[in-house]
Amino acid sequence: MAVPNAGENIEIHSYKHDGHIHRIWEETMVLKSQSNLLIGANDHVLVKESDGRTWRTREPAITYFTSNYWFNVICMIRHDGIHFYCNISSPFVIDEEALKYIDYDLDIKVFPDMTYKILDEDEFDEHQQQMNYPDVLKKILYKQLHTLERWIQQRKGPFSPEFVDKWYELYLTLPS
């Protein structure tokens, strides 16, 4: 698949290190797309879990994917402000099927006041032993976790004050 155009809808597929599907978001509208960046938006999108369960997201969200770093960011627009869910993950790729990445369990949850909490370190420890992550991969993932923390502290990229407003406004103007 060529780089999708603004206004197109794509699926997002999350995998685990062993190649098994983890989660699928059925529809995200592309707002900006380049070879190394994709910004998208979705609202009440259907999500399929690897165990067959399905659910819908509860609010509009702006998604930020880059192939330059090992993380992605979901900016959830809630009544009490913007909440961010950040996944430590492989850089994304796009093929004819979907945008795809490997989820490496480590996450950061960022609250509207920009305080944050690192999540799922126990899950990361369990999976890195089960799937035998190489030492070089573990070093990359922890380095990227620290880079992500700096981005949050510096209000860089998707954490900048105007980022979500700009992209959500565009999303609302595009036909669905």
TrEMBL record:
Residue ranges crossing the lipid bilayer per the database entry: none
Keywords carried by this UniProt record: Hydrolase, Magnesium, Metal-binding
Residue span, DUF402 domain: 18-156
InterPro entries (UniProt xref): DUF402, FomD-like_sf, Ntdp-like, SA1684
Single GO term (MF): hydrolase activity
SUPFAM superfamilies in alphabetical order: FomD-like
NCBIfam families registered for this protein in UniProt: PRK13662.1 (NF010183)
Name the record gives this protein: DUF402 domain-containing protein
